[in-house]
């Protein structure tokens, strides 16, 4: 794929950003918006040699050098943020895994699984996500959408079961509506099984499903392409591994295929593109079993499917670099004992609590306080140390394997993710040093498509990147710190106007 597309790519990109009527187009709503997500892509892996297509696109668009994932830096959380422009506590998922007994009694629910979403919609009257998504807003105006993902994350954009094929969602090879499944498989074959990594075949199938099938009759107003790599390869190996680098090159080839398809359909000059990732990535310095450690130290840990949880029991829900703790029938002092135990550990980074406890930040500070939500949340410690491939950023983490990759913390290597935007509405050849986030991507897409969201947004429109956009206020940065005895933890926070961004956070006993 790459060999056939990189040759004419310079012409494609020149066309994209050298549009004669660019100013006229920049003053009117976008005709097409395409959001392409490279799951788990760290921005420091974008380069002229590693990602030539993305690199050239960035030279003709805007690169956001201080882009942020939403905490917890996890896929479900950031898929919802990209889809709605609303923070986790207001939109729905606050982790990849949560404890929601109404959905999975005694188990931890995977928040982007089709069965979880279906059960949540049934239990809430269709409010698994509490607010409308970009795709739903486009469809409510009579527009068409095309959503395709190698993973199940696209369900957080559009999960509707419908009879018409005007708008289609594909996730993990499954098609909504079901009536479109056979036709797609007849043309592309069934969704390939991938035993080896990188998952190139699955990502290519998904890209072809979007560009050849969902765009067969023209490019719709809003499209999403969500690739499973490099995330899958980084989890199995580590950032910077030969497998992870091959996965990044595969994603770049799929971007070239998207640009080629847009040109062939005469839509390249009228399409605004966002190339983003949901989160960054780190390497596990030490995998930990927190439930086991708590049990060894006498805490009443609730095990999966336990019929009668103990009073004051602690349910431990691991999310890689973040752990959510749920207290069952809270016993006085349990949260305090848990927090003090974490503060004596050699792995805790930043602790959030529902109660006002010494040395913690409130859950509301990161929009994780909600009815039925966790009582305590932990972001593991991080360091700048380099892994076996010379890539900086290590963390402690719950589960997975030593020297493998994961994410979810407040490490800058997890928080800072990729964003490049290009098209008729964007400035050309610029780099933005202002903070931005996945919430802002959603807000900007809604602005470009002239959508009127029912919800107030937590992101801002990235006006500094738009051709006719007003210059926003300068960014300010501050550090918040709390202590308890020898324990110290901090959050570094940047602000643009009324919009705040968590740059990083860490903690530990004073030495």
Explain the layout of strands and helices.
Elements: H1 2-5, H2 9-17, H3 22-26, E1 32-38, H4 52-59, E2 62-68, H5 75-84, H6 88-91, E3 97-98, E4 109-110, H7 114-124, H8 134-140, E5 145-149, E6 168-171, E7 174-176, H9 181-188, H10 200-214, E8 222-227, H11 231-236, H12 242-264, E9 271-276, E10 282-288, H13 290-296, E11 313-319, E12 322-328, H14 334-343, E13 348-353, E14 361-362, E15 376-380, E16 382-386, E17 392-398, E18 405-406, H15 412-415, E19 419-422, E20 430-437, H16 438-448, E21 476-484, E22 487-496, E23 499-509
Parallel strand pairs: 1-8, 1-9, 2-20, 5-6, 5-8, 10-17, 13-14
Antiparallel strand pairs: 2-19, 3-4, 6-7, 9-19, 10-18, 11-12, 12-15, 13-15, 16-17, 21-22, 22-23
Helix pairs in contact: 5-16, 10-12
Describe this structure in words.
The protein is α/β, with parallel strands linked by helices. Helices cover 28% and strands 26% of the residues. The chain contains 16 helices and 23 strands. The protein has helices at 2-5, 9-17, 22-26, 52-59, 75-84, 88-91, 114-124, 134-140, 181-188, 200-214, 231-236, 242-264, 290-296, 334-343, 412-415, 438-448, and strands at 32-38, 62-68, 97-98, 109-110, 145-149, 168-171, 174-176, 222-227, 271-276, 282-288, 313-319, 322-328, 348-353, 361-362, 376-380, 382-386, 392-398, 405-406, 419-422, 430-437, 476-484, 487-496, 499-509. The protein has a nine-stranded mixed β-sheet, sandwiched between helices. Strands 11-12-15-13-14 form a five-stranded mixed β-sheet, with helices on one face. α10 runs parallel beside α12. It is globular and about 65 Å long. The N and C termini lie far apart (54 Å). Mean pLDDT is 92; it is low at 1-7 and 17-24.
